[in-house]
Amino acid sequence: xxxxxxxxxxxxxxxxxxxxxxxxxxxxxxxxxxxxxxxxxxxxxxxxxxxxxxxxxxxxxxxxxxxxxxxxxxxxxxxxxxxxxxxxxxxxxxxxxxxxxxxxxxxxxxxxxxxxxxxxxxxxxxxxxxxxxxxxxxxxxxxxxxxxxxxxxxxxxxxxxxxxxxxxxxxxxxxxxxxxxxxxxxxxxxxxxxxxxxxxxxxxxxxxxxxxxxxxxxxxxxxxxxxxxxxxxxxxxxxxxxxxxxxxxxxxxxxxxxxxxxxxxxxxxxxxxxxxxxxxxxxxxxxxxxxxxxxxxxxxxxxxxxxxxxxxxxxxxxxxxxxxxxxxxxxxxxxxx
Length: 337
Ligand code: ADE
Ligand code: ZN
What we know:
Order of helices and strands: HEHHHHEHHEHEHEHEHEHHEHHHH
Low-confidence stretches: none
Mean pLDDT: 98
Bound molecules: adenine, zinc ion
Shape: globular
Helix content: 40-55%
Structural class: alpha/beta
Number of strands: 8
């Protein structure tokens, strides 16, 4: 009989919290630097990897934005997306809802259309070749003013049918959700789902603001919700999905050790927690690596894995019929236990 770990690794999965810029592996970064005649300030792949020693979210973001400089052309964004989806498929990811940060690129003079067309091309190839489905979630950078986010939304409008949702990421502390109330109201008025990073490094109050002011459909991270009992009850009652990224949280020192992670508490209190990889190239952790690290720390049983992986399909932004098909396939998979 397969072990809970084997069942989890081989199960069909959805990934709901994934920054495409965070999938840039050093090998691809150097290949794109060469293709675009750019010098990366690191003496080779090993030296770049050695820099992946982060003390907090900001120390990671500084490197993440610096490396994104190698992304210049539509082909670069296509290759990035395709490389991620190829790798995710090895972990049996069948559906990915992918964040992208247009401001990181438009600020360098890369047109919005170049970014979007490249990412779409990669997603279309993965769909044609492997049947994988992808959605694109445009994230606003919260360390910049809301006016910049509004200008980015205006740039996105001609492509609105190709954008499946909106999000909020980058430096959390000092940039509460309240700062983005107007732009999120406009995104919702467009009929799009909205999400926001909250309660990663920031306090539970940021999660409450994201719910009350931005009216988000999902919380990205949310792992500090456990510090507020009333908030935990609300998240459980309303089944607000949390897109949890365990290896990211350990690598960015939200938790010193995986055994201190709050994922077991979230699940024990019946929150709709999901498992995701965030920025897998930087955290040494794609979906499968996250599953292995969580299992090493918590030794979840088959029922817990079934719940955790089904939550991701439930929380996805695809139509109900497709969700039901995926959940039925997952149920069949776990019936092997
Ligand atoms: N951008 C990329 N990864 C992020 C994270 N973990 N938190 C906030 N912004 C991000
Ligand atoms: Zn994230």
